[in-house]
Each structure stands twice: as structure tokens, then as C-alpha cells.
User: Fold this.
Amino acid sequence: MVDRFAGLGWRVMATTRHPKQLHPVAENVCVLNANVASVEGSDRVIDYVETNWSGKVDCLVNNAGYCLSGPLEMLAVEQIRQQMEVNLFAAVLLTRELLPGLRRAGGKIINLSSVLGFTGMPLMSLYCASKFALEGWSESLYYELEPQGVQVALVEPAGYRTGFAQHMEWPSQQAGEGLPYDAQLRGFESFRARLAQPQRGNPADEVVDKVVGLTRRQKMPLRNRVGGNSHALYYLRRLLPQTLSDSLIGRICNRLMQEK
Ligand SMILES: NC(=O)c1ccc[n+]([C@@H]2O[C@H](COP(=O)([O-])OP(=O)(O)OC[C@H]3O[C@@H](n4cnc5c(N)ncnc54)[C@H](OP(=O)(O)O)[C@@H]3O)[C@@H](O)[C@H]2O)c1
Assistant:
């Protein structure tokens, strides 16, 4: 995404927690060593914007996110809080700080949600909770900021081949002792292993196209699904009676998470 924006001549600032990724991509790109989910990291971003862009921001893409998976009972309190910190609060708090600059520029906010921002999934309840919350927050902000000329959009991808599956977080083995999740855990592990196969899924170009395309729209739509499964689940929910779609989605989840 950074390369695409840089190629279009944007001045881009990206963040990472991994200094070895800090190689210069192009003259118009700055990669900051910052964790946006920490106070120091977001302060570094805000300082950069003040110093280099006179506080003005044309577009903020809230992309940072990972998936905490596992049965609720097996998750540690700290893991639960951290999932919300990264997937929700980091975006909320950074946006809050950058709003004056976004308003000055008549800017755009693009939040990376997921098909799991409108569909629940077993053993991913906290990830879903974080993305559902991101959706509610973004929808409210869409209306709240419209009179000021700041636009808000959600991007809702299905599965794409990135570091996502490899970076999934999981509870410790001991946390499951004596709990009745063995069969579900085996099914989920097989699902996770399939997701993590290097040749599986499409590269994320479609998602990048969607984000870049949104920045070129005069008026961004609030919700932007990407990928066949995202559209299919959306229409399944929309067109079928609620009880039928709930039961169908349950069956799809069970099938996805069967041991293979
Ligand atoms: N890939 C998919 O199938 C898929 C589907 C739907 C939605 N999404 C969403 O797309 C977004 C990008 O994910 P991706 O697919 O590109 O996965 P990825 O390759 O694992 O990249 C994750 C990004 O989030 C940042 N991040 C992860 N954990 C973090 C933490 N604890 N603190 C701060 N930053 C953290 C990473 O920064 P570092 O460079 O510092 O590691 C990296 O920029 C996420 O919001 C994800 O939920 C992905």
C-alpha cells in the first residue's frame, strides 16, 4: 500500500514496530519505528505530522490489526485487552489526535475492518468484537464528521494472503486443560494451518486497489466489501430471514472448521 501511494506522488508516512523494515522505499516515504497501539508510538506519529506536514493530513489509513483466536475461556485477560487496544483503541485515539489536521485538509479516514466486522465466527470472538466495534465507531463518525468535510470509510476484506494467518495469537495449551473444546480446537488448528499455507489465497492487491480507489473518490461510500466471500456473506445476511441466515452461517463455520 505504501508503494502504491508513493508511486502516485503522495507524501507517505507509515509505521512499523520492526526497525529492520525501516529501509527507505522512496524519497517521498517515511517509515517510522512506532507502535501505534502505544502512547509513545502515536506521539511519534503526531510529532511527525506537526513537524513535516504543518499538521495537515489528507488521508489516515488505520490498518494495524491482528487476530486473537481461541475459546473465550482460554484467553488471558491481558490478551483480551490487547486485542481491543490494537484493533480498536489505537485507531480511535490516533484519529482523535489527527482530526484537526484532517479537518484542515478536508481529509479522509479509511479503517481496515473485515468480513468479520459483520459476521461472527467461533473461536474468533474477540477479533470479531474488535472489528464490529470498529464498524459502529466508523459509522457514527461518518455522520459526525460529514458536516465538517471529513469523510470516513470502512474496508471489509475477506481472506487475503498477508502475514495475517502467521501472526494469529493463540492461548497457551495449559489454559485448555479440563475444558470441553478439544474437537473445536483440532478443527480450528486445521483451519488455521490451511489459512497459513504460503500458496493459499490471493495477494492483497485487491484490498490495496480498494483503499487507493477510495482516496480518489469525491465521496467515499461508508462500507466497502472486498472479495467474493465478503459479498456473499453480506447478501446472505441481507436477503435471507435472520434465523435462516444465522443457522446457515453456523453451518458454514462448522464446515470450515472441520478437521481435514
Ligand atoms: N489478511 C486478511 O485476510 C485480512 C482480512 C480481513 C481484514 N484484515 C485486516 O487488515 C489489516 C492488515 O492486516 P494484514 O492482513 O496486512 O496482516 P499482517 O501482514 O499481519 O499486518 C498486520 C499489520 O498490523 C500491525 N500490527 C499487528 N499487530 C500489532 C500490534 N500488536 N501493535 C501494533 N501494530 C500491530 C503490523 O505492524 P508491524 O509492521 O509493526 O508488524 C502490520 O502493519 C488488519 O487490520 C486486519 O485485521 C486482514
User: Anything to note?
Assistant: The chain has eight helices and six strands.
